[in-house]
Amino acid sequence: MEASDPNQFELQQDFYRSVTAVVKVFFDIKILKEAKHSGSGKAELKIGGKSMFGKKKQNVYEQQQPENKAKKAGSKLGKAAGIFIILVAAAYVFAGSIYSLKENEYAVVTTFGVPAVVEESGIHVKLPYIQRLSKVPKTINGFPIGYNSESGESVDKESFMITRDYNFVNVDFYVEYRVTDPVKYLYASENPVFILKNLTQSYIRDTIGLYDVDSVITTGKNEIQASIKEKIVSRLDEEDIGIQLVNITIQDAEPPTQEVINAFKNVENAKQGKETSINKANQKRNEDIPAARAAADETVKTAKAQAEERVNEAKGQTARLNELYAEYQKYPLITKQRMFYETMEEILPDMKVIIEKSDGTTQTMLPLESFTGAWSAEDADKSRGDGTEESNTESRR
To answer: Structurally, how many domains does the chain consist of?
Structure first.
């Protein structure tokens, strides 16, 4: 950005007014000369003859003479106007190349955007359109923290702080600084004053948090100011942005209003509630996820065991069926009868079979008590075995 100079602006305005006055006088003189030439022409016409046709050659010459003079005057006027325009343009360019600096100003001159020279007070010249000028103040400047310097109203978000003993306090500061390196001030950072303000606010809160409320309001102000200044100066040396802290002072320190305290407590309670909810959710997640993983592992193990059991059972059934099929190929009829009786043994113990005679009486068929436990398992096996042997004997016969 190129800073404006009121003195230079006034000089340019005076120059433009002078040029305008010169132009006006110039054209007034030209108008008077044209009027004079025009008048003499008419006189010569009257003296030359009484009639326009009296002396033909003399009258023609006398008529052409004013026209030639007018052409010559117009040509001279055009040349003079061109020269004047060139002079005005040159004067305009030259006037824009001159600038003056006060005692409390720096000027950084850039050539094609590159810093070329730093000028101090006095009158200087720069190349038009090639070099640009940026002015930087030498004086000590400042800004408030915690209040508005114009209206005097408090800015709570800047002044409201917490002390070491968990009390609240409103503290207002005023920061003074000056530019030490104009080039770094303009080009090392986008906004060095904004950086200084942010650093100051950060170190103020850190330092206030190390003191109790009584020290902040009464006896500890000087110590707090010195501590904050030392931290900021050290940090600015590291940042190297062409700006130096001159001083920082506590303007006012007092407890905040009850309304502000209540609002702050509500915010803190909300933050604590948020943290509590997050911690509970994390705890529940840490408990539920392992339990869910254990349940999933148990389900997978159970499914694998059941699958293995069913596979083994299917293999056993397949083996028995293959054995039965081998027996069936050898003794089809006996195998069919055996399968029939074994099936009946499984079905009939749970059924009651009654046959109704033609005379209306009933008769219980089969010794069902043998299926319900009257016979022992060994007798049943022996009976089946004997029956099988007898059947085999009859079959062989």
So the answer is: 4
